[in-house]
Amino acid sequence: MRSLVWPLILLSACTSVEFARLPSVGSDRIFITQESLGGGYESLGLVQITRRGVLLFGFADPAGTDLVAAVEQLDPEVRLAGADGVMNARVKMSQYSTFAKILGAIFFFFPLPSEVTITGELVRIRQGLPAPMTQPPVGAPL
Amino acid sequence: MRLISLTLALAVTGCNATVHGSRLSNVPIDTGGIFLSTGGAPKPFRSIGFVQVRGYGVEIAGMADVGNSYLDGTIRGSLAAEAARMGGQGVINIEFEDENPSTDLERAQRAMGSFSNLLSGRGPETKDRYVTVTGEVIQFLE
Amino acid sequence: MRTLLLTLSMLSFTACTVVNTVTLPTPAPGEVFVTAGDIAQPHEVLGLIQVQRSGVLLFGLIDVVGTDLEAGFKEALMPEVKKMGGDGVVRVRYHMTQYTPWAHALGVIFFFIPLPSQVVITGQVVKLRG
Prior knowledge:
The complex is a heterotrimer. Chain B contains 3 helices and 6 strands; from the N terminus they run αββββαβαβ. By secondary structure, chain B is α+β, with helices and mostly antiparallel strands. Chain B has one domain (24-140): 2-Layer Sandwich (Translation Initiation Factor IF3), CATH 3.30.110.70. By secondary structure, chain C is of the alpha+beta class. Chains in contact: A-B, A-C, B-C.
């Protein structure tokens, strides 16, 4: 039984989850969506936010390389551009399992590199216009 | 002590990199040329094919960028040109990534390193830079 | 000597972009369609697919296995979609290894160290309804 304890602990730490709550839509808030917009819009440009740092002792993230920090950094960029929000956002980030983080804590002299990247298109909404089309495959009605 | 504080401050706050690209096309379309969007198409279309463009350049001394590792050069330049060559009228579902943007801290480090290199008769520090862009080339049916 | 070095540097930057394409003809009835977006037509999602072709570039140039977009889409993805009974693939995402001309040149010189090459394509396989 004792010989099963460590494998069970290690296997229980095979998934890491990151979550960032997006700002809710309101008159003074920006939107961030991974989809395209359903109506007309004006493109104001592209933006990519990258935050890079290390995880000290496997767990401490002084530079803020998580999703929350990246979304928080995106907000002023959107406002500076005069945009209403970001569409087609894509996210990429380093994720370490708990086991990897524990190793990072033990071998603290080798900090774990950590990075998060968000890309997207800055848009200003144009009201009351039809949604963009999708391609009909051959044989299917438009 | 001040130098340590400054370094620590840079280490925590200078770990962000923001990359900008110029406007893409608006919906509805209000200008000529190749339609470019990270989203879908505003009119019925048929898909012609797919493109992947990788632009590369060199960052010199943390300050100057030479080559084609800009979003604009790869998207509005190479991607649009390739779409036109394929007979397309637009590129949709564009995804982009600046693979290794430099943070303020890294730029400062490279600038300082280049300065000391130059004083000792060596060349400036350089960093290879890469941008990758993909997209779906389309022709409008109307 | 300085002029030569400067010229070589400038020449190397004239080849700063690598472009790869795949042209897919309009699918005839019964053939697989591919799109990076979504479709409005009623459809059933059969599943997710990821195809990957890995190989090496011999002498920095010769792609023996076929690890470019053409091979990835036409030889790997579309036959698999047909096997699954799908009519097409939506939300396609793809990536292939791209080397600069300078890297290709190094691959030719150091031919005993072939350059690894790979193309990966993912998507959602769908069957149209009605």
